[in-house]
Design brief:
about 90 residues, mainly alpha
Length: about 90
């Protein structure tokens, strides 16, 4: 017997899921973007749900990136990463 469990999402979780869908829609006509978007969201899925400030920061940053992605002239996404120092 299969049980269906209804998961209730917080308002912020619903906003993040909607943002993810918007990213996927905006990236449909741009080769190579969808895997990058999926990887970014999967990486950030590991953030604790209680770290609301960090999640909200990433949400706002993602909204700005989405606007850039929607621009017809956008051909690639840039990223910021920390430099690893040689040991």
């Amino acid at each position: 017997m299969i049980q269906h469990i209804m998961v209730r999402h917080s308002k912020l979780q619903k906003q993040v899921l909607a943002l993810y869908r918007q990213f996927l829609r905006a990236a449909q006509d741009k080769p190579g973007f969808i895997p990058r978007i999926r990887d970014e969201f999967r990486t950030n899925a590991a953030i604790k749900k209680t770290d609301v400030m960090h999640i909200e920061y990433l949400y706002r940053r993602a909204q700005r990136q989405l606007e850039l992605l929607k621009d017809a002239n956008t051909k690639q996404l840039g990223s910021f990463s920390k430099w690893k120092e040689d040991s």
